[in-house]
Write a structure and sequence with these properties.
Number of helices: 5
Helix content: over 70%
Strand order of the largest sheet: 2-1-3-4
Low-confidence stretches: 1-13, 15-25
Order of helices and strands: HHHEHEEEH
Shape: rod-shaped
Structural class: alpha+beta
């Protein structure tokens, strides 16, 4: 009921007799109470609606914010990961190039020392094999005698080390050959000189090593070149 209707009730009350005054007052109070309660109820409904709308909007905002944040975070993390991974790849490439460059530099700086070291080891092994193998010494001497034209008288001069190694061994068994074995301290270990009336053959271990050095150095350097 509207406020105009309340006014009409008041006018109607004035034209009625005194007996009905209390009844109309009660009716007016009831209507007023109903209107007040309706107004308060409407305010509560509107307030609740605003609150629910705010809460819904807040929750949706959180969801939207989370989804947006997740998407932006994923994109940012992915791009950052790609950037870091690319940086590591570039670092490894640069490191590999640096290692290759350093390897080449070290090779150029120490290649002759490496070759010399290998050759010295090879010489030592050959020398030890030579000075501990009477068969090798005997074969060298016999081959030298075999190429001589005059074999009637053969003089073999060796270093003291070789002399002690082969002094008890039978050398060339060539008919009519007279073989004399002589030790000479002036010779380097491994040196052998075979002399006959027609000439002499020398086996100088250092000279042989020199020849080996020259041929082996080229082969070795080529095989180590990056």
């Amino acid at each position: 009921m509207s406020e105009d209707e309340i006014t009409d009730l008041s006018e109607f009350k004035e034209v009625n007799n005194q007996e009905n005054d209390s009844f109309f007052l009660e009716i007016q109070d009831i209507v007023s109470n109903v209107l007040e309660r309706s107004r308060k109820t409407a305010e509560l409904i509107k307030a609740k609606a605003r609150e629910e709308g705010y809460q819904d909007g807040f929750e949706q905002g959180k969801v939207d914010g989370y989804e947006k944040g997740y998407e932006e975070g994923y994109k940012e993390g992915y791009e950052k990961g790609i950037e870091e991974f690319s940086e590591k790849i570039e670092y490894l490439k640069a490191l590999g190039e640096e290692i290759l460059s350093e390897r080449h530099r070290l090779f150029e700086e120490y290649k002759y020392e490496m070759v010399q070291m290998v050759l010295e080891i090879s010489k030592r092994l050959i020398f030890e094999e030579l000075l501990t193998s009477p068969e090798i010494i005997s074969n060298i001497i016999n081959n030298a005698i075999s190429i001589m034209k005059e074999k009637e008288s053969i003089r073999i001069i060796v270093s003291p080390t070789i002399f002690s190694l082969i002094m008890d061994r039978r050398l060339s068994d060539i008919s009519g050959s007279k073989v004399e074995l002589v030790s000479d301290e002036r010779l380097d270990d491994g040196d052998i000189i075979v002399i006959s009336p027609g000439g002499q053959v020398e086996f100088r271990l250092k000279e042989r090593f020199k020849e080996i050095d020259e041929s082996f150095r080229d082969v070795f350097l080529n095989s180590l070149r990056p």
